[in-house]
Amino acid sequence: MSFSLREVTIQHNLFDSASGTEPSQTNLYYWIALDAIPSLQKRKVFTLLSHYTIEQLFNLNADQLAKHKLKPEQINAFLTPNSTHIEHCLEWQKSAADNHIISYEDPRYPALLKQITSPPLLLFAQGDLSRLDSPQIAIVGSRSCTPYG
Known about the structure:
The chain has helices at residues 25-35, 42-51, 54-57, 62-66, 72-79, 83-94, and strands at residues 99-103, 122-126. By secondary structure, it is mainly alpha-helical.
């Protein structure tokens, strides 16, 4: 599946998940692209999404994006998303029936997870999604562990 972000139309809004259906593949494309913006803090993401739909955000020009105090590499990532990364993610989802990519706006996104300070924009899940709403145990590791850690 190949997309051009400048040519697609989105039917979902960030805060409108009342339909109860999964977001479209095109909308998921935008979410993966947004999640891949380098060093973009969640606070900034949600501020931007309070002013624009995700579609509008990816249709802003460089000057409009710069007004939001984005770094040049972030502006470039909005204007030319990493389609290889996005396609790789979508292919992973298609590779097995129990592979799921759940965006923040997806009605399947766990409500309790939305309440943390910096919720992930995407969840990559395998298996039974009904388990997302049941009590969980998490093991947290570090990519850059210090000797003390």
